[in-house]
Amino acid sequence: MKGTKVAEPLADTLLGLTHVSKAYPGVKALSDVSLAFRAGEVHGLVGENGAGKSTLMAIASGAIAADQGTVTLGGQAGEGNDPNWTRERGLAIVHQEPALLPDLTVAENMRLVQPTRLRPSIGTQNTWAREHLATWAPVARIDPDTYARDLDPDERFVVEIARAFAAEPSVLILDEPTEHLLDAGVAVLFEAIRRCVERGVAVVYISHRIREVIEIADVVSVLRNGELRGTRPAAELTEDELVTLIVGRQLSARFPDKRPDAQPAAAVLTVTGLSGGGLHDVSFSLRRGEIVGLAGVEGQGQRTALRALAGLERADGSVRIDGARVELRNSAVAAGAGIAYLSADRHHEGVLTGLSVRENLLLRSLAPLARLGLVNSQREQRHTQRAIADFGIRTPDRATPIESLSGGNQQKVMIGRVLLSGADILLVDEPSQGVDVGARADIYALLREATAQGKAVCVLSSDNSELAGLCDRVLVFSRGHVVREVSGTQVAERTITEAAVTTSVSLSRQAPTPAGGRITDRLRGRLLPALVLLLAITALGAVATAENDAYLTTRNFGLVLPMLAVIAFVAIGQQFALLVGGIDLSVGPLISVIVVTASYVLTPVQTVGGLAVGWLALLAVAIAVALTNWVLVSYFEIGPIIATLVTFTALQGVALLIRETPGGSFAPDVLNAVTLTVGFVPVTLIVAVIVAIALEVALTRTGLGVRLRAAGSNPAVAAGVGVRVARMNLVAYLAAALFATLAAVVFLPVTGSGNATVGTIYTLSSIGAVVLGGASIFGGRGSFVGAVLGAALILQINTVVTFLGLTAYWQQFLLGALTIAAAAFYSTMGSRKSRSRA
Fold it and tell me: Superfamily for 251-338+425-435+457-506?
């Protein structure tokens, strides 16, 4: 394929970018860029970090809008920043950092970005996803029912790539697709690209791996400082020529000279018999002044070994630093022992979003800049500016938020943090991930310079050519063992690759997840909270029964169950708010407002028509409150806690203005309808349970349920894949207000009259119920059935405390303790699960 398309007549342009410009505060990201991407052609797009490649493709895909210029797709002009428009017209994109929603499953993530004509039904999405993932089985075997948050970094990339190809695009954009792929994975990807080209797909291939670009591309365009510097046939370019075009200068060498053969230095780190977490009797040493590489097919234990030395994984064995034994119980102990670690998972374990470049860069090197605990701002500024220059970090200012930098520049900040730490042992996982060729040479030089200062460096990389060019020795892992050490003149890409592929069989990729493991995952996920709550409710009931015979009586249940219906409805509403990453503190006062309003509009003297108007009035109040919360959160961008606290306060005042003292009464027909029972069980409670079950099913089996979870899982990513996040917030706040109104109506027979303070307690009760039910306070995860069971546990606590003769303070104490314990327990289970896959 390579080179054959250039000589042929130009094919039709499927994606056109004309005079595109984009600026951010202090940065001109793109300046008057025009490019055409044609059918049946692989168009390489290269440039340094911050050159504008990802920004250009984000504009092309509709993720962001250009300041100037036009985008045409299939001959039609684009409609601004609308990913749905581009997706429906045949554009698919593989992002530099996988745009997966952590609280959605693999299948849900894959289905969400498919064009309407190819989107499978939710009932068949797992089978559909499994078929499309089968192509990538040599790279990773992934269960479509796995939550994205539990995937390893390389698996996230595979899912991102697989779902783009599943969309059968006419234009396919691949932004750094091979950063986490080994040679076998690259081969699978390139074969898939060639099949796409044969079908007439226009492929845009962005990569810092120059050899790959020249191998797969037909033409190559170079961006530098946001400007197009030219387009040339790939067949006419050598690697060195393309590197020169990218960086604008001649690089003296890709890799620095290795240390000359000399008397080996003493070992600064000695590892003996490291076992556990998939490791088996791993032993090696790391000497001052050398760089040791860790190689092997992904999943063979090399990453576990590196993380164990960083104090992030538990493993048995002996670790000595300068001869003294060290127990690396956690990362703090490892750092104190002189170990600095760079994670390959930059977004989850590297950058601290919300903090500046300066704060991220100097996080581990503030002590030398401080006196008596106070940092000298002038020294800090000089130190930061020097580091930014030394590491080639492109940033408008040292105070720039780290998340506004390109991925490559974020990586440079992380490398800088490690090098500035003063540690004697540097553990570096994928040092050049997402970094341009010029910056890679700088990073390699910095690592070699660190060894010249007497430091020891251990590098893990999926790029064997990188290990060969950089390292003095390479340890090859297989099945948790170090199976070969390559040193001296043997340190070559071919030798490392042969050693890895001839001795490795990746157990994690070839063995399917045991059925027991899948069941355990489900218990840890959606079923666990419900089972824990049922156990707690039963245990408390047994205690109350043993102490007081009156507990198991219809009279007791007749008093308790109507109150459970009230808490259940308001908890269901609160669950909607938490699903989208919000919270609704106003539900309690809203209940009060509905109750006092009902005491005027649902009175015994009202006619049928008057009652109908009264119901409409209550509905209007609920909608008005929901819209107020939504506008404050989505348009004024006020945090949900502050926004709904404002509404909380306002509604309390409104309730007291309407009826300062309790009074009024309600129509008998209304009260009779609300108090209907089946035996001793209120119909309202039966309805609440049925609604909760229906919503539970809808949460995973309908498009709306998936979009609600997506909006709360990661709003920015959700918006990027076409989810209307503001619309989902509106749905959530409307549901919260409407269910709170329903709870207020159920509460009318209990209160008997209009009372302006009767609902306030239900704000905290509803939050406690959903947290007990397994909801994440950060959004994206929750259970409506769990919320109802959480409400049942709260009422059970109150009832049992009364039957045991304890003071009312025990109700608050037990509820608070259980809520905290539940949140900690569910969070810990999720963390353990994720760590077990690391």
Answer: P-loop containing nucleotide triphosphate hydrolases (3.40.50.300)
